[in-house]
Amino acid sequence: MHPIVTLVAQRLALGILLLFAASVLIFAGTTMLPGDVAQQILGQGATPESLANLRAELGLNDPPVARYFNWLGGVLQGDLGTALTNGRDIAESIGGRLKNTMFLAFWAAVVSVPLALFLGLLAVRYKDKWPDKLISAVTLTTISIPEFMLGYILMYWLAVKLRWFPSVAILNDSMSLLEKLNAIAIPVIVLTLVVLAHMMRMTRAAILNVMQSAYIETAELKGLGMLKIIRTHAFPNAVAPIVNVVMINMAYLVVGVVVVEVVFAYPGMGQYLVDHVTKRDVPVVQAVGLIFAAVYIGLNLVADIVSIITNPRLRHPK
Amino acid sequence: MNEQLTKLSTQVASGALTRREFISRAAALGVTAAVANAMLSSTAQAEEAKPVVGGTFRMGLTGGESTSTQDPALWASHVPLAIGRLWAEPLLRQLPNGELSGLVAESWEGSSDAKVWRFKIREGIKFSNGQVVTAQDALRTMERHSNEDSKSGALGIMRNIESMRTDGDDIFEVTLKIGNADLPYLLVDYHLMIQPDGGFDNPNAAIGTGAYVLETDEPGVRTTAKRRDDYWGGTQEEVAHYDNIEIIVLNDATARTAALQSGQVDVINGVEPKIAKLMDRAPNLQVRNIAGRGHYVFIAHVDTTPFDNNDLRLALKYAVNRQEMVDKILQGYGTIGNDMPVNAAYPLFDDTIPQREFNLEKAAEHYKKSGHDGSSIILRTADGAFPGAVDAAALYQQSCQAAGIPLEIKREPNDGYWSEVWNVQPFSCSYWSGRPVQDQMYSTAYLSTADWNDTRWKRDDFDAMLLEARAELDPAKRKEIYSKMGRMINEEGGVIVPMFNDYVDAISSEVQGYNDDPNASLMNWYAFKNTWKA
């Protein structure tokens, strides 16, 4: 069998094991937090009777291990269950949220990845000259500013002062694609500024590393132009580390943007998860946790496969 | 002069000036208060006579989560309540002046001992599913909130009910164990929304008698509603002008402000005192604050050492610099407290009770008298205890230090604060949102048997006074009893009340007909009624 197929099979099996481990950890962690879902729902207004009644109704009186295996049994049959807090079907609620998260992550990636690669290449071309320094200075500045701050600054200028884009990025089904893109414009800009530096610097470093090699010198002596050398000789050999960084940032765009979601009231997975952790709604936390873990595992798998495909030595092992 | 006055009074009508500001400015122009008032009401009427029907009213609100439901029994934060006001109504509502007005109930009367209360259901009004509302629905609603399986947030206030029954299709009758002249006020509670068959079949169905029906409902994100053609309202208090209502959850304070400034919403709640003054200067919007009954507290358990010593409690009370807290924590958007849970916003409040002043000498004196061993007194706080709770605790620590009281602050996580710290630890920060009447405030937290007796205040003489006042129908006598109770808590209670917070909201200048209401934020969450957009 081809080594890539074997690798994918191995990774997928390992991934499923990891998902189990993650679900156990999430369950244990959420259960260990002080207070349970009944207390969190009733809050300051809880009375002993209403607590007891709500606990009984939600089935919280079963031992934790039994609750875990109940949940696991459901998931193995494809049933994520219903939220303890509002009784809504989890799969349905998550469906809409996941779509939103993916929509935002997709457009942020579409803008940021090509831009980062391009700026990285440009920085290499003008290494140690002013364009290189300017690119590094600007991207490192934007990555150093906390996301919410970037969000507020852009919101003030683009939404309140210039009124180009809305400050609230709430989507609904009646909007056209263009309206949706207009709604998420500021969050996409913020996310781009946040992930740009990491990818740009990695592109720059990886290509510069390759540029030290003898075959680049040869290409230079052949009389090839700098950009052509970078494009056809250096870049393909630097792809593996770049893809790794790109994948980490893509994963971040999916699972780590809760702050941006809150600032722009964007209905994504992050805010949904935080709300349910606060309320100790274990089935929802489990479901979201599994999806997030699966995204990480999946994107890492893609990164590994890409590095193998781009490396002839790994592609054709002896 | 006349022109100036006219301009001023139009400003009042549009909400740019408060009535009080108007009268003081009119006085500066040499007009007496009586004339100014008369002038004001004629302008106000002229303005209010032409509301615009139609449009969408958009509210950007904090206090919403993706975990919330449409079951009124489980509402505990702002947004579910704001949404609930759209589709549902309780029997009665409280008006801004403190009086009651009928919603599902058209009229009501109590027996002379205040033990039996009869509510007449408004004739011919319908739920949004077309069903006619009967007394049976009211009865079943009250049952769902008080039976032994109840998980309702209103369970605590339903305890005193001995029995309930219907009398024909339109009379709902409640018999109490102990007479309570304030019973109608209790039924204003937002959990007690009348649902078909009490909501037993499907508490989440969002079917009620409200002016609107929900169109989309994404918890914690956005809810839209459209006006019902068959809504019964139309009286002065209950007019629905807007065709559509949109509620957007904006838990982030800056996001809320930006949404109002960029015109994406028409009103917001929970304006941070820090930015309220700055915001008020912005064009096209105005900040509206109203003194309410909500208050921020430091609560000590009077049955736990060292707080079981009244001298120590007095020392802690004298060591609070209340004015400083109102100035620095509330930025002036509030009033000082007087170590009791009621203030002048309550009916039958006795304003002759002396205000406790900040007095370091007296604090030091009482501290010495208490014979406290000098070990640290730990005050637990968290950001979520009330806005600015950590800073308030720090200010308090400073002033305690000046009086020689060794106060130590322990900061707790927000998460789990209400289950692990409040009402558990002997000394902590907390808040109370107000109740409609004094009886309810005291029965909720100061009666020996109260579920939320967070100061462990258990005094038979106090309980007896509370029950006596409850059944007393003569307002003068009740006021006297409440005054005694207030003084008792002020002198001996475990509650330290540095401040009463204002409700601070902001509205776009397009919104007309907005009236401040001390019951809660955004006209007691009824801002979608009676207002309109110019």
Automatic annotation (TrEMBL), chain A:
Keyword annotations for this protein, in alphabetical order, are: Cell membrane, Membrane, Transmembrane, Transmembrane helix, Transport
The record describes its membrane topology as:
Multi-pass membrane protein
Q: List localization entries.
A: Cell membrane
* Domain ABC transmembrane type-1 stretches: 98-303
Is Transmembrane given among the entry's keywords? yes
Q: Which residues cross the membrane?
A: 12-33, 102-122, 134-160, 180-199, 238-264, 284-309
Q: Which GO terms describe its biological process?
A: transmembrane transport
The answer, when asked if Transport is one of the entry's keywords, is: yes
Q: Which InterPro entries match?
A: BPD_transp_1_N, MetI-like, MetI-like_sf
Give me the Gene Ontology terms describing cellular component: plasma membrane
- Similarity remark: Belongs to the binding-protein-dependent transport system permease family.
Q: Which PANTHER family match?
A: DIPEPTIDE TRANSPORT SYSTEM PERMEASE PROTEIN DPPB-RELATED, PEPTIDE ABC TRANSPORTER PERMEASE PROTEIN
Protein's recorded name: Peptide/nickel transport system permease protein
Species in which this protein is naturally found: Sulfitobacter undariae
What lineage, starting at the top, does this entry show?
A: Bacteria, Pseudomonadati, Pseudomonadota, Alphaproteobacteria, Rhodobacterales
From TrEMBL, chain B:
Q: What highest taxon heads this organism's lineage?
A: Bacteria
Q: What is its main location?
A: periplasm
| PANTHER family (UniProt xref) | OLIGOPEPTIDE-BINDING PROTEIN APPA, PERIPLASMIC BINDING COMPONENT OF ABC TRANSPORTER
Which UniProt keyword terms apply here? Answer: Signal, Transport
Where the record annotates domain Solute-binding protein family, the positions are 100-453
GO MF entry, a single one:
peptide transmembrane transporter activity
Tell me the InterPro entries matching this sequence. Peptide/Ni-bd, SBP_5, SBP_5_CS, SBP_5_dom, TAT_signal, TAT_signal_bac_arc
Q: Which Gene3D superfamilies match?
A: Dipeptide-binding Protein, Domain 1 (3.90.76.10), Dipeptide-binding Protein, Domain 3 (3.10.105.10), Periplasmic binding protein-like II (3.40.190.10)
Q: What is this protein called?
A: Peptide/nickel transport system substrate-binding protein
What is the organism field in this record? Sulfitobacter undariae
The GO biological-process annotations, alphabetized, read as: peptide transport
What family does this chain come from, according to its entry? Belongs to the bacterial solute-binding protein 5 family.
Family annotation (Pfam families): SBP_bac_5
Annotated localization: Periplasm
Q: Name one GO cellular component term.
A: outer membrane-bounded periplasmic space
Q: Does the keyword Disulfide bond apply?
A: no
